Amino acid sequence: MVATLGSRRSTKAPIRHLDLTLLACALSLSVLGAVFIGSASEARLVAEGQDPALLFKRQIIFLCIALGVFVATTLIDYRQGRAAAPVVYGVAILLLLVVLTPLGHTALGAQRWINLGAFQVQPSELMKVVLIICLSAALATERAIAEQGPRKIALGLGIVAFPALLIFRQPDLGTVMVLLAIVFALLLISGAQMRWLALAVVAGIAMLALAVQIGVLKEYQIARLESFLDANKGSSSANYNLAQSKIAIGSGGLTGKGIGKGTQTNLKYVPSQHTDFVFTAIGEEWGFVGGSLVLGLFALLLWRALRIALLSKDLLGTLMASGVAAMFAFQIFVNIGMTMGIMPITGIPLPFVSYGGSSLITNFTAVGILMNIHMRRFV
Amino acid sequence: MVNIRIRLTALGMVFVSLMSALAVRLWFLQVLAYTDYANAAEFNQVKLVPIAPTRGRILDRNGVELVRNRPSLTVSVRRDALADRDIIIERLVPVLGLTAAQIADRIDDRNVLPYAAVPVAEEVSEDVVTYIKEHQSEFPGVVTEERTAREYPQGLMAAHLLGYVGEINPDQVKQDRYKGYRLGALVGKAGIEGAYEKDLHGKEGQLKLEVDSTSKVIREKGRSEPELGRDVVTSIDSRIQAVVEASLLLGLTKARTIFDKESQKNYLATAGGAVVMDPINGEIIAMASLPTFDPAMFTGGISRANFDALANDPANPLINRVTQAAFPPGSTFKIVTTAAALEDGIATRGGKYNCPASYRFRDRTFRNWKSTDSGVISVPQALIDSCDTVFYPWGAEFYKRFAAKRGEGLQAYARDFGFGHATGLEIGDKAGRVPDAEWLKTIHKRSPKLFPNTVWLPGYTINMSIGQGDVLATPLQVANSFAVIANGGTLPVPHVGLKLMLDGQDLGPLPSTPPRKVGVAQSNIETIRRGLEGVPTTGTARGAFLGFPFDRVSIAAKTGTAELQTRPPKQPYSWFAAYAPAKDPRYVVVIMLEEGGHGGETAAPIARRVIEALFDLPLSDIVPAARTD
Fold it and tell me: N or C terminus of chain B with fewer C-beta within 10 Å?
């Protein structure tokens, strides 16, 4: 008892090791996101005769829920994740299966959601965090540490395979790619041999090429890829989206047109602007200054994540933190890169900024995990 | 555990490079390529809708309106505001009296920009406009507008000269001449409307609209008002024009009552042209062509069926017989042969020449139009009687000189008198043809069947001396050649535009090209004038001018009867060219009737009536005169 009491007061107490920079980054990005979601959706909502601030308000509600989840995540020691992993994994798989049943909710041609009345839950978002926890747990076992070769790779791919297949069926190629990026990062950090990692990447690219060839991919997915590789090819709608997205960002110039003054934004030229293309609203209305600010906040966030991975007391924490960092980095690069035409168009949301409750909750859970590791690096 | 630090560092470096790539790309888009994207955004949101300018009027020399604009009530549709297209079309059907398919067709007009109103029905009544305005809630997206349409207060008057307007065609839009025009713009297509398009058109105004991604108009951002088109004041005298047209019609009608012994039927008199010109400065006072068309048919867009009917009519009503049709000039060409022969020393002013019934050159016989021998006559008398056999030997002499490689003298004078090339009239005209050895080679290559010969034969020059054979001239060219005699030796450039006006303000005279000196000595011109002066009083046009008050207005003239070497043979083409007063000419008048008989017989009476109008004399009835050359 004495020891417990002493430790609570000691410099090792978790509450004394909050990473406030990390939290500030996540919060700033979320609030900024909500503001631009409001700006990007206002004209559409007015046209539909709805409350112009509807999506802004909903995103703020989502943020409050996400903060609750964040707090909850920090309370349970991340090392409990080792024991909880099989259960969490099972539940997540179950939810993904439910999505594909008639209980699933279809929108924009994909069945990605479970309908809960007022809100829809997107289990594939949660799957990202679940994968980080479960794969980190699996790779942090003594047996896994000893293994450096193909078996380690097989372990990683084995865990991701089934959820990835279920998500691919929705279809949601973007999330599948996020999952694969997480697997890659975790295998890398956990010490997999480089030649086997390289082989896995080559195999992955070959499979993607095969998927295009045998027609597993949907037509619009191929069109987006084509329009990315060659602007003269691809469907006109994919080209149009990309062109309008670039015009929105480019026309923002150095300082932007001001919030609510973006013409591309107000005149609804950019599709899905409050979700996947929200960065275009920032680029247009806040210009290079605002865009750089957002990139800077993300860079800070990634740095904090990697720092936590480095400071972690154990391998489990290092792996979890690296997984979170990889998930954010991949989504940030693919999403912003897509709006600027250096990545193909995929349905990957921008962490913290894009509209959507599931995504926001997932991201704050991930931040919670990071905070959790940081807090407990001395206990 | 040692390599975890390295691997984390590696991951960190990957992150750094990814974020740097985004930052660099962001810099490129927003800073380096900013201008392009800013323009693209502007182009996206701002759409320019043209506001059609009001076209200038066309006036006669005294300010009488020949073409003006009138308001035309138009029902248009704004496609971006058309909520339920099919229902609206259904509702418009009974109001406009059009079928649903017709309305849908108009709405889908691809020439109209997506956010501009598409006219669906023009020239609707006030009632239709009132009805739509009162029931506007039933017609969302339907607007009524007051547009302008071309109006012709003088009816069919001078239709060919005025021309018509129509929507610019896709080929024209690409031409330099129509730079700045957009598809769907109204342009002058022919005549003065075409020639003075730039002045008449005015400048389009622009409506700046902000539109969203669905082409829905959000608001008006600004507008620039269109500039009024300039009025063109022409040299036409509408009073004379009316007489010329009426006389030509009357003359053609009368000609159709005359029985032609050669063809064993009445003259067909299918078409005719008439022109009155100032011989000093080339101003066109009147120009008529029959059959004609109603320029109002082109207002608001001529229907395909109507246009095809005009274009495929065998009588070619769209062709201006004064400028766009060339025929053998017949004996009116003898002024050129006379001038050429006198200048080149083939004939002399005081010379006496035989006028037998026929002339023989080598193995060919060339007949006079009269079958009797008229004895020995002077040069003026040869013109008065139009004695072909006086001119044939002159033609033969020109041929001999050509054969001796001394050039083609007759052709050179013909060109000097304005034949073989366009006169320069603003509305454009045909070049006609002055045939020569070079031309024969070319035409033989092109159509060896029609022109089997490659060698220039003597008969060609001999026939040309009386305006027959392959020489072709427009009535305007004939008028111009008579102007040379009338004004004492210069070839004017015919023109119809006098000056431009804007909003009642005079913008000064239009530039005119000075006349060109023709290489004929004054004394030779005098000889020709003496001949022409005798034609209406004692010569081939004597019959047509019986009872004409020559003491008040003296006239110099020449008749012509052209034979066309066609199969089946055509009836003769009737020509009459005159200038008056003979001593101090103010007007040249040329009349031409296709298959209308002989010059003195049918064309001269029309010219007489025109001259009477020009000098305020009482108008005579048109009475066919004796059959002369």
Answer: N
Which three-class secondary structure string do you get for B251-288? Answer: HHHHHCCCEECCCCEECCCCEEEEEEECCCCCEEEEEE
Q: Is the ipTM beyond the 0.90 threshold?
A: yes
Pick from A101-110, A233-242, B40-49, B350-359: least confident: A233-242
- Check CB contact of A283 with chain B, cutoff 8 Å: yes
Structure tokens at B156: 């069919």
Instruction: Compute chain A's Rg from CA coordinates.
Output: 21
Q: State how far the alpha carbon of B159 is from the alpha carbons of B193, B212, B241, B288, in Å.
A: 11, 46, 11, 8
The mean pLDDT value for B503-511 works out to 90
Bigger pLDDT: B226 vs B536:
B536
Predicted confidence (pLDDT) at residue B565 exceeds the cutoff of 90 = no
Scan for tokens 């490129």, then name that residue.
Answer: B28
Q: In chain A, positions 245-264, which contact chain B (CB-CB < 8 Å)?
A: 246-254, 263-264
Chain centroid to CA A374: 20
Measured in residues, chain B has a length of 629
State the Cα–Cα distance between residues A211 and A218, nearest whole angstrom.
Answer: 10
Which of A44, A48, A142, A251 would best serve as a mutation to test chain B binding (most B beta carbons within 10 A)?
Answer: A251
- Closest chain B residue to the Cα of A310, Cα to Cα: B5
Contact B628, B560 (CB under 8 A): no
Residue whose C-alpha is closest to residue A92's, from A67, A120, A127: A127
- Evaluate if residue B325 carries a pLDDT over 90: yes
The Cβ-side half-sphere exposure at B62, using a 13 Å CA radius, reads 7
The single-letter DSSP state of residue B332 is G
Local structure of residue B91 (DSSP, 8 states): H
pTM: 0.69
Task: Please work out, in degrees rounded to the nearest 5, the angle formed at the alpha carbon of residue B107 by the alpha carbons of B102 and B111.
Answer: 115
CA atoms within 13 A on the CB side of A343: 20
Option in B38, B40, B45 nearest A253 (CB)? B38
Chain B (161-220) residues lying within 8 Å, Cβ to Cβ, of chain A: 210-214, 218
Question: Residue B104: what pLDDT?
Answer: 87
The residue assigned the tokens 């300082």 is A255
Residues of A whose CB is below 8 A from B45: 263-264, 267, 269
